[in-house]
Amino acid sequence: MFHVAAIQMRSEMASVRENRVKAVKYVREAAENGARLIGLPELWVSGYHLQPEMFRAIAETAQGETVQLFQRLAQELHVVLVVPFPEREVDGADENIYVSVAVIDTDGRLCGVYRKSLLWGKEQRAFAAGGKHYPVFETALGNIGVLICYDIEFPEPARLLALQGAELVISPSVWSLQAEKRWDIQLPARALDNTYYVLGVNTVADGACGKSKLVDPRGEVLNEASPGEEEILYGVVDVDEIRKAREDVPYLDEYPHELTPGGSEKMREYIQGA
């Protein structure tokens, strides 16, 4: 059992230093209040509503200042941090920008980086899609999966994380007011489908619907933030509840493989080979 926190914050567009100062303040507050795993919203460091050239100017590598700052903070506070950032990758003459998330363990170690695989609308003009690879990160607190915003609207990535042993899936997002109903449906559906916890970390203002939420393995919303205010959402993840939910609702044990030739292996090949 461990305590989690979702930092529901508003970002100042293109104000990297100001956003970092605010995020660090919130992370420290969450840790002081007992959170052991703390997540930030999608593209919090840059803001979401920027032109492609602005994302390109702000983007960093996974060894850049933003990730290193939070590695030091994770080690100092002894917490797991889930830190989105616009990531730059240079391969020879080619340069790609991704919507990425760094997962940092309690000792400051970078467990890995996940790149958003499914891009929504105008994101396709600014970012490259990450490959359809959905890793589970082993941390001191448990097995963590990440699905960024639009990623969690599709059942297959969420199921693949379950098949790989994810206990908590975190969804850093900039989820819009227009799509608020989908936010309220998709997160509980993914939690229930796969009988694990889901922590949705949304932003507020600038057209976002807020309502960060923690959902348990039965699809019940345990706690939900306001639709329009900056705040820290707190909750508890109890791994024993996953076992109990899977005994009551054995979706994973009774997965109907005959409906998909090759079952879960075919799904793995589809997602990882796309």
UniProtKB/TrEMBL annotation:
Keywords, comma-separated and alphabetical: Hydrolase
A Pfam family the protein falls into: CN_hydrolase
UniProt KW Hydrolase keyword: yes
Positions of transmembrane segments: none
Domain of life: Bacteria
Domain CN hydrolase: 2-239
GO molecular function list: hydrolase activity, acting on carbon-nitrogen (but not peptide) bonds, in linear amides
The family this protein is said to belong to: Belongs to the carbon-nitrogen hydrolase superfamily. NIT1/NIT2 family.
Descriptive protein name: Putative amidohydrolase
